[in-house]
Amino acid sequence: MNKRLQTAALTWLCLAAPFAFAELPHHSLIEQAQQEEAPRVRYALEHGAEVGLTADGKSYYLLWFPEGSDAQHPPPMITTLHGHEGCAFVDFYVWHQFLKPRGYGLLAIQWWLGTGEGIHDYLLPQEIYRVIDDVFRGLQIRPGAAMLHGFSRGAANIYAVAAMDRSLHKEYFSLFVANAGKANSDYPPTREIEQGRFGDQPLAGSQWVTYGGGQDPHPDRSGIVGMRDAGAWIQQYGGTVALAIEDPNGDHGGFHRNPRNCALALDVFDRLRRP
């Protein structure tokens, strides 16, 4: 892009931003998203995503319904947890093209708190589940009508979230998708599962899809080898791997970059979800 066109584009962005962001709640993490991911924020708002604050005020979430459904008549729901230093608005952008044709809704949780790398710089699994439960109770989501997806660090957290969903007998999720992130025993929420906090078989009855890419820079942690380990770990605690996606050409973010991968996982959800 030449300098004149670049200047014109930036001018348009600055002029359009107040209109696009007018209905957003006030929160420092939303302001950070506006500064760092402005095109994705605009995309979400233009396509009808609603933005709400978590009950504890720590963060926010995006809620979206396809045409023909709304909060009074919610569709099957996909819940997603972004990866390391991620953004819920980017997650909406990545998922939207796949969910719209299927008539699925989306709950994207901003679980990174904007700075830092430590466990408390992210919402803890129990805090994540509280957000899910608050939203789903409000929507009257029935057991088995939702799918939970986690990418990378988000995937490393969904094992504990899954254990909570089962142990609390909510069972909102008929499918869990662990995308490029295995359960690590050095991560405290994973250790709680292994130490029996949720019982001997905390994942009993749960169904899973795993994804690993052959070009992942960390093959033993989040690539094909790592996600084979994840599958064995899931089975050890009572879960079932309905589908293990191994994409030899896929990288760390290859689940969404290859539409076939995403379609395969959603096909499993189609088969397993309860009406």
Describe the structure.
The chain has 275 residues and is an alpha/beta fold. The protein has one domain: 3-Layer(aba) Sandwich (Rossmann fold), CATH 3.40.50.1820. 42% of the residues lie in helices and 17% in strands. The chain is built from 10 helices and 8 strands. The protein has helices at 3-20, 28-36, 38-46, 88-99, 125-139, 153-167, 188-194, 224-236, 254-257, 259-272, and strands at 50-53, 60-64, 77-81, 105-109, 146-151, 173-179, 207-213, 240-247. An 8-stranded mixed β-sheet has the order 1-2-4-3-5-6-7-8, sandwiched between helices. Helix 8 (224-236) links the parallel strand 7 (207-213) and strand 8 (240-247). Helix 3 (38-46) packs across helix 4 (88-99) and helix 5 crosses helix 6. The longest helix is centred in the N-terminal third of the chain and has 18 residues, at 3-20. Residues 1-21 have low confidence and may be disordered.
Percent strand equals 15-25%
- The 3D shape can be described as globular
| Whole-angstrom Rg | 18 Å
Overall domain count: 1
How much helical structure, as a percent, in the residues? 40-55%
The count of helical stretches stands at: 10
Q: Which residues sit in consecutive blocks of at least 5 with pLDDT less than 50?
A: 1-21
CATH fold-type name: Rossmann fold
- Strand order, main sheet: write it out: 1-2-4-3-5-6-7-8
Characterize the largest beta sheet: strand count, sense, and whether it forms a barrel.
8 strands, mixed
Identify the CATH class: Alpha Beta
| End-to-end C-alpha gap | 49 Å
Structural class by secondary-structure content: alpha/beta
Mean pLDDT: 92
Extended strand count: 8
CATH superfamily: Alpha/Beta hydrolase fold, catalytic domain
At CATH level 2, the architecture is 3-Layer(aba) Sandwich
Order of helices and strands: HHHEEEHEHEHEHEHEHH
